[in-house]
């Protein structure tokens, strides 16, 4: 089954064609992040306007890049005839941005007479772990995650730990009580005057520090607090980190020189808490696999720390983390989620839902 996924929940306009939930035939993303970098964060109205500009060209490019060459025609009706269904992110996200994708997908479903599947963006992130990277398409065995799986979704707006008993069978274990992990990166980066999005900026600065000071061990990066790390639950709290970074910044006369060291400490504090809490859940629930997903999962130190701690604790678990470019927002995992949770509904019943939670009900027949 071939699914065209569409994703417009925030500042990326994305479309992708995926076969049987695992093989990426195309993956096109237009981002307005550069525009938001100038203002230090997303202005929802501007993000929605950019979505309107990009959506049709992006869908067009996704179809052409999936089928254009092989079919020896670029005639649109021939390209769309190869699609079996559409998948669309209905939430959570910014309402203006979501509406652009949702209304476009509904229109295409009606015009092309194709089934349409509404998708919750949060559990969908996890399906990047079912995808085979494009260059490996057709080659090698794909090691799909086994159930039960424990999954950590860490994005710009959400931090959720869930137990996955099967496709569509998710139990929420815990999440952030205030800021999301990605938000902590974005807000602290702003305090350091680093460009949006903050995660990649902090990670680049941290790398400078660790590279310049190879004898520094990660254990010494302790200037910031690790809230709730020892609490016997699966909740997180990151808003205190922002305050601690602000206080540190205010005491520095020569901030610019110390940015790499502060960044390394921010990254380590966030990674420490995420790894400790997640592995606490692994020890308790003994799942067969551990899945990481969401933009923050692109962080190299976080990925490394998970691997090291799994080894240290000798945990018998398959660890899955998507390649970094599939962690951040794109439409491949929207299509993959729709394949493994195939519940099309009449296009008339599809509605954007900006407040959706990771286990939230989004299908109304
Ligand atoms: O999943 P995502 O692309 O969009 C949402 O659904 O929110 O996540 C975006 C978040 C941003 O907060 C961004 O700063 C963070 O992911 N991020 C990273 C990295 N790349 C993106 N955080 C840490 N390290 C990275 N390399
Ligand atoms: Zn996302």
What does this structure look like?
With 365 residues, the protein is an alpha/beta fold. Helix content is 44%, strand content 18%. It contains 12 helices and 10 strands. The chain has helices spanning 33-39, 44-71, 76-80, 95-112, 121-126, 181-191, 198-212, 239-251, 255-285, 300-312, 324-327, 332-340, and strands at residues 2-7, 12-19, 23-31, 85-91, 116-120, 149-154, 159-166, 169-175, 289-293, 318-320. It starts with a strand and ends in a 25-residue tail after the last helix. It binds 5'-O-[(R)-(carboxyoxy)(hydroxy)phosphoryl]adenosine and zinc ion. Zinc ion is lined by residues 121, 125, 155, 294, 329.
**How many individual β-strands?**
10
Largest sheet, in brief, is:
5 strands, mixed
Give the ligands present: 5'-O-[(R)-(carboxyoxy)(hydroxy)phosphoryl]adenosine, zinc ion
The proportion of strand residues reads: 15-25%
- Kindly report how far apart the N and C termini lie: 22 Å
| Secondary-structure element string | EEEHHHEHEHEEEHHHHEHEHH
Mean pLDDT: 93
Radius of gyration: 21 Å
Helix percent reads 40-55%
Class derived from helix and strand content: alpha/beta
**What is the global morphology?**
globular
What are the low-pLDDT stretches, counting only 5+ consecutive residues below 50? none
Strands across the major sheet, in which order? 3-2-1-4-5
**Total helix count?**
12
């Amino acid at each position: 089954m071939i699914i065209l996924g569409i994703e417009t929940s925030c500042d990326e306009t994305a479309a992708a064609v995926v076969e049987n939930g695992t093989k990426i035939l195309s993956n096109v993303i237009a981002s307005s992040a550069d525009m938001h970098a100038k203002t230090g964060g997303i202005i929802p109205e501007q993000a929605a306007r950019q979505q309107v500009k990009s959506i049709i060209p992006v869908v067009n490019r996704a179809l052409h890049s999936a089928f254009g060459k092989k079919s020896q025609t670029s005639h649109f009706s021939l390209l769309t005839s190869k699609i079996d269904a559409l998948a669309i992110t209905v939430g959570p996200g910014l309402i203006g941005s979501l509406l652009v994708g949702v209304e476009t997908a509904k229109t295409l479903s009606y015009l092309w007479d194709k089934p349409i599947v509404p998708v919750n963006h949060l559990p969908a992130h996890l399906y990047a772990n079912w995808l085979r990277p494009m260059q490996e398409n057709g080659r090698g065995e794909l090691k799909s995650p086994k159930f039960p799986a424990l999954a950590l979704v860490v994005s710009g707006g959400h931090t959720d730990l869930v137990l996955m008993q099967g496709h569509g069978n998710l139990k929420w274990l815990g999440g952030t009580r205030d800021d999301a992990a990605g938000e902590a990166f974005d807000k602290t980066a702003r305090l350091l005057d680093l460009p949006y999005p903050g995660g990649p900026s902090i990670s680049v600065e941290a790398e400078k520090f660790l590279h310049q000071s190879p004898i520094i061990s990660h254990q010494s990066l302790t200037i910031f607090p690790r809230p709730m790390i020892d609490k016997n639950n699966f909740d997180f709290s990151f808003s205190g980190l922002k305050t601690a970074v602000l206080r540190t910044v205010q005491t520095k006369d020569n901030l610019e020189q110390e940015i790499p060291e502060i960044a390394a400490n921010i990254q380590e504090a966030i990674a420490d808490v995420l790894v400790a809490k997640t592995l606490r859940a692994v020890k308790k629930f003994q799942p067969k696999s551990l899945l990481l997903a969401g933009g923050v999962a692109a962080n190299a130190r976080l990925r490394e720390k998970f691997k090291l701690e799994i080894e240290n604790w000798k945990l018998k678990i398959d660890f899955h983390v998507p390649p970094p470019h599939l962690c951040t927002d794109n439409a491949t995992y929207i299509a993959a989620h729709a394949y493994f949770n195939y519940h099309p509904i009449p296009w008339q019943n599809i509605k954007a839902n900006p407040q959706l939670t990771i286990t939230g009900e989004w299908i109304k027949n």
